[in-house]
């Protein structure tokens, strides 16, 4: 009876060790993850003036937008990962600021900002909570820029409708976040990304405007480990 008990204990211990090893491998080097969630981008705008002959102090502000986000990551080592953030275009509203603050909507623009990160994930691969930090590159691709009647009234009163273009830019991004494992496969994720983005608007009137957007993005999502 004692021998059988000892054998049973050894079998259970071996099974537990195998289970722990399986759990660790699910979050260690060679693991792929996919995550879906929502992401809110809030620009922190420092706007230059629209060039002459606009009124001095003619500035712009940019409103936030929230869209779905899709993320893929690969664990290069137990602690270092590579991540790619994708999604659909964000639609931001431009409003008057500075000397024209309160004049309302000047236009809209869509931006698609795919971002690639290299991350460091803290703690052991099988830890329930794993904070991480990342550094990466964002490509801000602007499209469907549309001016309003208010923009025309400010820049070319009585003239043709004013249009504009935003210059596409590559920008540096920093990231901090954490995952919370539900089990060996499923996890929750929250992350904050700061992007250092400067660009330029060029108007159909020939005027230009430098603008620093420096957005902060907050995302929450659910992920799965392969």
What can you see in these coordinates?
The protein is mainly beta and 226 residues long. It is 14% helix and 57% strand. The chain has helices at 2-25, 149-155, and strands at residues 32-42, 46-47, 58-62, 65-75, 80-87, 90-98, 105-112, 115-121, 129-147, 164-166, 169-181, 186-196, 198-203, 208-212, 216-225. The chain has an eight-stranded antiparallel β-barrel. A hairpin with a 4-residue loop joins strand 4 and strand 5. Mean pLDDT is 90; it is low at 4-9 and 11-25.
What's this entry about, in short?
With 226 residues, the protein is mainly beta. It has helices spanning 2-25, 149-155, and strands at 32-42, 46-47, 58-62, 65-75, 80-87, 90-98, 105-112, 115-121, 129-147, 164-166, 169-181, 186-196, 198-203, 208-212, 216-225.
């Amino acid at each position: 009876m004692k021998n059988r008990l000892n054998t049973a204990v050894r079998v259970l211990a071996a099974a537990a060790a195998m289970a722990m090893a399986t759990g660790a491998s699910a979050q260690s080097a060679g693991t792929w993850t996919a995550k879906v969630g929502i992401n809110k981008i809030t620009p922190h705008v420092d706007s230059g003036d629209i060039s002459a002959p606009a009124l001095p102090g003619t500035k712009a502000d940019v409103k936030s937008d929230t869209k779905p986000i899709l993320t893929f990551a690969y664990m290069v080592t137990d602690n270092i990962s590579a991540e790619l953030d994708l999604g659909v275009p964000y639609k931001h509203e431009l409003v008057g600021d500075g000397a024209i603050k309160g004049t309302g909507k000047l236009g809209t623009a869509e931006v698609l900002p795919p971002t690639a990160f290299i991350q460091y994930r803290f703690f052991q691969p099988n830890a329930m909570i794993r904070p991480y930090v990342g550094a990466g590159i964002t490509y801000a691709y602007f499209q469907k820029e549309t001016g309003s009647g208010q923009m025309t009234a400010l820049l070319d009163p009585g003239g043709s409708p004013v249009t504009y273009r935003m210059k596409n830019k590559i920008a540096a991004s920093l990231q901090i976040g954490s995952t919370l494992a539900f089990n060996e496969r499923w996890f929750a994720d929250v992350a904050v990304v700061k992007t250092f983005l400067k660009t330029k608007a060029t108007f159909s009137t020939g005027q230009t405007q430098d603008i620093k957007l420096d957005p902060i993005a907050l995302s929450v999502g659910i992920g799965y480990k392969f």
